[in-house]
Amino acid sequence: MDLLEGFRIGPKMAGPDRLYAEISYAEMNMPLPSNREGMKQIRSEDLKKMMDDKADFVLIDARGHDAYDKEHITGAVSIPSDHLGEHITKDYDKDTTFVTYCSNLKCEASTVAATKLERYGYKKVLEYKAGIEDWKAHRYPTVTKGH
Hints:
alpha/beta, four-stranded parallel sheet, 6 strands, disordered N terminus
């Protein structure tokens, strides 16, 4: 089965009583910005479904260790994009599914990390470009320092 089969592609309608900050790109019927041609991107709803379905994947927080320590998406591992070398991923099978994320749409760390993973020969690399800010806007779970 293709990794992206069954993912919702079409827009989801936003209710009139929802806060603007909680409206995702999908709800605004806008395509996700892409910094690189062909980069496979997913939305918060897709990542949450993968988690709920207990899919087998590695979620990489590509921000710095301090940002990760302050708050990160539940289940993520901290591998800053500038530290991501082939030696870090050598223990993973080439069929491993990776999802990278960073802070928000302006942050480039998730794109850099995903590009490196593809360069190292991984075929199942997804980028959650909207990042942790979008994740929190949907009120999905995070881990904060001290908890």
